[in-house]
Amino acid sequence: MRRTARPLTGTALAVAAAALAAAPAYGASGGLEVSPSSVVPGGQVTVRTAACGDGGTATGDASAVGAGSLSLAPGPDDQDATGRFRVPPSAQPGTYEITATCTGSGRLVTGDLVVTLTSAHQQVHPRGSVKTGVGGALGPDPVQTAAGVAALAVAAAGGTWLLHRRARGDGI
After folding, report:
1. Which of 38, 66, 105, 109 could form a disulfide with 88 if both were Cys (CB 3.0 to 4.6 A apart)?
2. Where are the chain's structural domains?
3. How far apart (Å, rounded) are the C-alpha atoms in residues 44 and 33?
4. How far apart are CA 83 and CA 17, in angstroms?
5. What distances in angstroms separate CA 57 from CA 64, 104, 111, 122, 156, one per listed residue?
């Protein structure tokens, strides 16, 4: 059993190493970073890539979402090629591929942009009471709530008095 385990382990490691060597290394060569990755129609998006080299430029294509082409160039404090575009207000929700082609090398890099109808920054807070179908005086009306608490207090006091009388032997 030990003899078959070692060749299988060696084969598995060789396959894993080959897969890692064939996979694109986005950390080293750079892909297209889309920020924010999720946006509402009318929002502004920044794309950035390091794939074109230090000081390299690129031509971006955001026509999939309806924004057309854009230029990517390094900023004053950054060596990565950066560009911006605005998502049209008429854009439909979905995932869109944004591409950029490096000017010198012709290298193509891609990134995904998700268009949603609600922003991740806008939180919707629930309002109103919960409709459980049980009923009761626990609605949003403070008068009904006070009446329910008073009814419970009277019932508790009456029950305590009856139990006390029964314990003394007075009967009910």
Report:
1. 66
2. 28-115, 136-172
3. 14
4. 36
5. 21, 8, 17, 35, 79
Q: Which residue has the higher pLDDT, 47 or 54?
A: 47
If we measure between CA atoms, which residue out of 111, 101, 96, 92 comes closest to residue 63? 96
pTM of the model: 0.53
Q: Are strands 69-74 and 44-49 parallel, antiparallel or unpaired?
A: unpaired
Give the homologous superfamily in CATH for domain 28-115: Macroglobulin (MG2) domain (2.60.40.1930)
User: pLDDT tens digits, residue range 93-150?
Assistant: 999 999 999 998 899 999 999 999 876 555 566 777 666 666 554 556 778 778 888 9
DSSP states along 84-132: EEE--TTPPSEEEEEEEEETTT--EEEEEEEE-SS-TT-PPPP-S----
Q: Which of 49, 55, 59, 48 is nearest to 28 (CA)?
A: 49
Res 142: pLDDT = 77
